[in-house]
Amino acid sequence: MNQNPPQPPPAQPLQGAPLLEALPPKQAPLAPAGGAPANTPPLPKHAPPQAVFLWFFLAVLLFSLYLLFTIFQPFLHSIILSCVFTGLTYPLYLRLLNITKKPMVASLIVLLCLTFLVALPITLMIIGLIPQAASSFSAINNWLADKHLATLLDAYVQPLLLWVHNLFPELDVQSLDIQDSVVSASRQTGQFMLNAGTYILSNIARFLIHFILILLMMFFLLMDGAGLLSKLQYYAPLKPQQTEGIMDGMRRMAKAVLAGGLAIAVLQGLAGGIAFAIVGLPAMFWGFVMVITAFIPVFGTSLIWIPAAIGLYATGQTGSAIFITVWGVAVIGSIDNFLRPVLMRGGANVPLLFTFLSILGGINVFGIVGLLYGPMILGLAATMLEIYGEEYHSILQTREHTPRGKKQQAPPPVK
Asked: What crossing angle do the helices spanning 103-114 and 76-100 adopt, rounded to 10°?
């Protein structure tokens, strides 16, 4: 019986030899059954880099977003306003949702409140405002044509100009034609109000369509806005707390403008209109003008009721002049002093001067919607500066500032 010869033991790696020497030698690829060597396909020598696919994807993405913006551009103001009003009315929607337990019903109630409490009164006010504006400027022009202004200037302004000329002889204040300037300004303002009224009346259908679009978009945003906001935070190339900070900053700025600014301006205009109605002046028109001047820092509505009191006193209506003055100080002024801190609680911490400049610049660039867009852009810029300060706090904090006029000392040599 043949026995297999004993096999030698496998070679052990030497102590301390490198690990690569202990690995088995690389074997050649197995040949096929016919004995021919295996043909493996060679790798491409010039494989396209991954950056090509990335840039192509970004180009297609940006092009699709541009096309989407082109489609939505005619409704851009409606989309922005619907998002702003949705953010402001969302707490009310959540309270109604807890009561009704039905998102559709809660959303409809919010839209009905917005329509009957805000939109309908504004529409009626604008319709009644146009004839009062025309009659007001007509009365002013008639008063100016009857030379009441010349009498008033001779009695009060000319002595003041003479005193200024005696005090500063180099100033040629005697050549100022104040009467012609006032008459020209009055005519230009009246023509502007007439053109604005004609524009509003001719575009009522357009405004109505945009308002219906705002309500329709708000209906879906109130129900699905939370999911859309989560998607936006997911796609934004920012940290979640940064995206929330931007949204919160713009929401607080919108609240400061609409609740703290516009609501106070409307209340002051309403109070001024009541006082003007009592003394027999066009209440709706001058109340609307007070709403506009309420955004001017320091002076505010006093730019309207102080000249009105002076005019009443100059025409011999001393009691009405005293009443307007007392009402302006006690009622109109107290609205700004007491209600502004309450309504603007939790609003944006931005100086009033910057808010006023953003409103003027926004109206100049965007029109009437700039009343809201300007402060919101200001809030966005302020929030981005806060994020920059938080993100680079360590660099900004450890930065060494050399006083002007002193040379920075060289560090001590290392021993």
From this structure: 120
- Centre a 10 Å sphere on the Cβ of residue 102 and count the other Cβ atoms it contains: 11
Tens digits of residue pLDDT in 268-315: 888 988 998 898 887 887 888 888 788 776 778 888 888 888 878 877
73-120 confidence digits (pLDDT tens): 888 888 888 888 888 888 889 999 999 889 899 999 999 988 887 777
Residue pair 336/293 in contact by the 8 Å Cβ criterion: no
| Cβ contact 275:328 at 8 Å | yes
pLDDT for 375: 81
Domain boundaries, the chain: 74-235, 238-392
- Confirm if 219 and 155 have CB atoms less than 8 A apart: no
Q: What's the CA gap between 158 and 162, in Å, rounded?
A: 6
Residue bearing tokens 């690569």:
20
State how far the alpha carbon of 296 is from the alpha carbons of 263, 353, 362, in Å: 15, 9, 14
Q: Tell me how far apart the 2 most distant CA atoms of the chain are, in Å.
A: 149
